[in-house]
């Protein structure tokens, strides 16, 4: 009897199990390739984001007035000491900070004693890369003599004066042994994880095999393919062990590095057996479900609840972050209003001082009121509650009006118009589009404090009107070109700190454009200006 | 006469502090961020440092850490002026040996009393 039951229940299960196993085997090659490819993409994103953090930290240091003054004075000892103070900001990711002159001569470094002694750095790839034109640059990996470390890679960032003229180069040498930790989480999932620079040299790798940094891998066909811009996803012999591997690559941003990930078919087979074990477990679980009633079900519910709870916690945290940012932003103008009015009330001031302080109070009150209006606007837009009174709108005419409004507050600027007179009308909310243009033009004025020409243009771009506002101001560093559209992400550098803003102008611009089915973006060359673009779809009737 | 250093990145508050303390018998120095502040601490060895917490380049906490790391500067007391007076921030400030933590918005009277009390 028992044997009969075993046959009746067991046989179909065996058959189902075998079928699943066969399918899994057939699908495993493709699955593995997808998996290594996803691993390479994740690795490249991690390396890119870690580098971006290091670059932006180095840029914020290079923008300090202190470094500017010390480089101008060539005060080497003070610069050494100052760099030594800032080195801990990198929490160990950077081994050395050093400063080069505009001709590539060594000026100062921290730590000093282990640093390169004097000399000419004008032939290094980072000096050449960061000075033609002047921009942040990540070097290829190179052999180094200091600190008993075999290899290094350096982030070079220009130090510029108040007018954007270069004074020198701030360089941060990355500790590549620390950089390996960035990819550590991937080692549990793959057999090989390694990073190759733009010359095809191995930067670092994390795997069981002996990985010698700086090894020239340029002749490997996969490395060659990746260097020519292809994303590799194939089966190949391992570079280090000669074993068979599923290999995939992904580029790290635009710096010329590539992350490779490899998985051995043997390991895949093991994973397959884990999968089969999983199937067995599933079968047992089904049996358990039948026997044990709702136990498993309640467990699933519990897990879902846990996930929901985690989501809620995340939401709550982002709400708290938001409240803390907003309260911070509000308290600053409040301090001015409270303090200056207090002095007017309690002190015997000259009429001149009273007027001066009243002006400060007025400015802060306006700033506060603008922040509240914009915050409410943004909230309405993001929750889709913004009312829209759409009508046919002549974008070129609105741009002309917006410029006329801005002129009185921009005595140092000249305005140029490049308007398309034949531009079809758009279908839009007039007040909102005015808000977009006003925000963009007032930003152009604010972020070019030395004056210059502000160009406002319109043109046809496929089915939409394209409008741009160009200034000749300080520009935006490449890593901030997207984040300027985020709330409260005002560019904070020594040059922008005297510029007041609510940090909400550009997020509002983007929201309005998106609500109209258009887009908003920026491009910029640091030191020579920015251009902000918006597109807004034509009125379907007038575009025809 | 004592020397007081203020580190604060907002230009309006800069002016407020300068105006509030313009008749003070002390030397009042102003820095725009933590890094500039640290350079001024080294150069002038102030009697006390008042520092904002959220600043570009180097924040107030990092400034405090850098001062503590230097035996010559470790003894200089620090007062944090911060717009976020949540408990975690105050605890963080206290952990860094802050003499006081005052929240924004502060009044001119509070500022003057504090300066008088700590000097």
Task: Please describe what this structure looks like.
The complex is a heterodimer of chains A (544) and B (119). Chain A is an alpha+beta fold. Helix content of chain A is 48%, strand content 21%. In chain A, strand 17 and strand 18 (529-537) form a beta hairpin. In chain A, helix 12 runs antiparallel to helix 13. Chain B is of the alpha/beta class and 119 residues long. In chain B, helix 2 packs parallel to helix 3. Chain B is globular. Chains A and B meet through helix 2, helix 3, helix 9 and helix 10 of A and helix 1, helix 2, helix 3 and helix 5 of B.
Layout of secondary structure:
The complex is a heterodimer of chains A (544) and B (119).
Chain A: H1 2-62, H2 65-73, H3 76-86, E1 94-101, E2 106-110, H4 125-131, E3 137-138, E4 142-143, E5 151-160, E6 166-174, H5 176-182, H6 184-187, E7 192-196, E8 202-207, H7 221-227, E9 233-237, E10 244-252, E11 257-263, H8 265-292, H9 295-346, H10 351-382, E12 390-393, H11 395-406, E13 413-418, E14 426-429, H12 430-446, E15 452-461, E16 464-470, H13 505-515, E17 519-525, E18 529-537, H14 540-543
Parallel strand pairs in A: 13-15
Antiparallel strand pairs in A: 1-2, 1-6, 3-5, 4-5, 5-6, 7-8, 7-11, 9-10, 10-11, 12-14, 15-16, 16-18, 17-18
Chain B: E1 3-7, H1 11-20, E2 27-31, H2 34-44, E3 48-52, H3 60-69, E4 78-82, H4 87-95, E5 100-103, H5 108-118
Parallel strand pairs in B: 1-2, 1-3, 3-4, 4-5
